[in-house]
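Task 17 of the worksheet. Students: predict the tertiary structure of the chain below and write it out as structure tokens. Keep your answer in the requested format; marks are given for formatting as well as content.
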Amino acid sequence: MTLLAAITSAAATPTPAAGAHPIVLTPGAAPPPPTSAALPTPIPPSDWTLSPADPALSNAASFLATSLSSCSSLPRLRTLLANFFTTLSQSLSLPPPLPKLPDAIRALAPYFPAAVASLVASAAARLSEHDVLLALADSRLLAHPPPDLVSSLADSGRADLVCAVLRQAADLRSSELLAALRCFLSPASDKAYDAMVDVKNRWKDAALLAVKKYQDKGAGKKVNAAARRAALLLMMGHDGFSSPEVCLHYLLASGNVDSVVLGAAVAELDGGEVVRLMRYLNKWIGKYQRFPEAQACPEAVGILGLEQCESVPSFAAVARTLGVLLDNHFSHLVLNADVREDLRAADAMVKELAAEAESSGPILDLLHRLQQDK
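Model answer:
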């Protein structure tokens, strides 16, 4: 019997239970039992339709965005933000906002519109409301900062806020990178340098906290292991670096900086800034040569609250920046007698690290294969 004849014969023969079971293509196999005797009860449309959106929140956000462009005083800015936070809390059935604006921003950060946060940052920078800016940066609401924010903060000597913005920014332009590089490589004022000293002091406090956590034997093995790796990273990022150089860590550690955009910024540096950047990178190469076991420790942020561990540049980031610097200023560095020894030292260290990596390659491949065979 052909396949077509078998199908036609089966269709012509009525089967009482045919509709109760699925089609079985395997000859001789018993059909599976029905999963349910009856279909599920349909849900009336009135039970699943969405309630209309509350227009109060969208109106408040639109009013805030429109008013921020013409806001010219701190009291007006604070009033606008306080009113918006009240409407936001009421519309989302949240607790009343905290009286201090920075605390309210941190509490409402998960519900704060990103587009509005950028406008608030512009107005706060224009009016020197730096506490609001810091709260926005700490809450990671400035992934897309306004175009002139980094330059404005650098001009006002707030290097600490520049670091906070660089730590999370996702799309920095070459002009912003250049402003940050010049802010750190050539501090324009004592105020800017004092802000960088504060940043380095926070790294010192974080390193001491990591050492304390490691020495606490009752914290558990997981905490002690994370604290040990964090202490090594923070020690590497603190010891031997000046305060402006510690601030440079935030720029190099950012994973969102494109090499082409970075090259455009590095190409605009003057001779003194190029030499200082070269010596800074040389220090990092020496650190990784001395401590090859150092590696990223993301759990230190969640377990220990040491956010500085996120801003320790990896060896790959250091090597990439060194390559960008040599591509743009090779002639100046080679002809400069003051930096010639630094170049030779960097060349020797890079060759040693490359040889070590090459010799470790087969061992790493073997370990990966053993892990896959388990």
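Marker's comment: The mean pLDDT is 83. The two ends are 52 Å apart (CA to CA).
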